[in-house]
Design brief:
The chain is α/β, with parallel strands linked by helices. It contains 9 helices and 9 strands. The chain is about 35% helix and about 20% strand.
Length: about 250
Amino acid sequence: MNTPKAPPPIVTAQGASGSTHIRSFVHRRAHITPSQEQAIAQWLPQWAIRYQNAPLDLPTAFGRAAPTILEIGFGMGETTQQIAQARPGDNFLGVEVFNAGVGALLKRIHDNELGNVRIIQHDAVEVLRDMIRPGSLAGAHIYFPDPWPKKRHHKRRLIQPAFVELLVSRLAPGAYLHCATDWEHYAQQMLAVLSAEAGLQNTCADYAPRPDYRPLTKFENRGLRLGHGVWDLIFTRRTPDGVASATEAN
């Protein structure tokens, strides 16, 4: 008789102050292909940035000054690749922990000659806290994060008030935050948490139409064919009184 598997443990990190936070991931065994392993061995030094407990200079990291978009949890990098190709004037900083995804995106970067993508293989919360300067991001993408569907696991979801407050502090005034999920309950939680953050303003009454820059993945297309919903949320960081956002200024 098969013994039911216990849910993965909550993985926490402890800071210098002794406080802990829920990581943006849980440890899982993930299959990695030989081509992904080869990509890591060959191209990780060229396109990846090591985690450091010090602010990152974004123009130096990308070799140019350009609006920088942070993507948290890029999976296999399909969406990252397509958005980076469609928006060559922007820099994209992808944060992912799993080797298979890192190897897959490295291969996409090499095969498509994407000079505007960099990778940090580390916990996103620590990257935001330690490496991203306040007010330095032009945007952030969080697409299809782990929904933790069971009620007792909802506290493990990434979109929580403390995390959103940290993320918003790293956005420049007028910068945007774009989340997407295919779990309706998580979409409702996202909407409530983001709407309650004083530093954010919703661009729509509630959920947003999928913008042209976010492509449909194979997984998403399959879900839509089966009648599954997808919810996009696009918020912007509020600007100080009398200061126009970059969009308004142009």
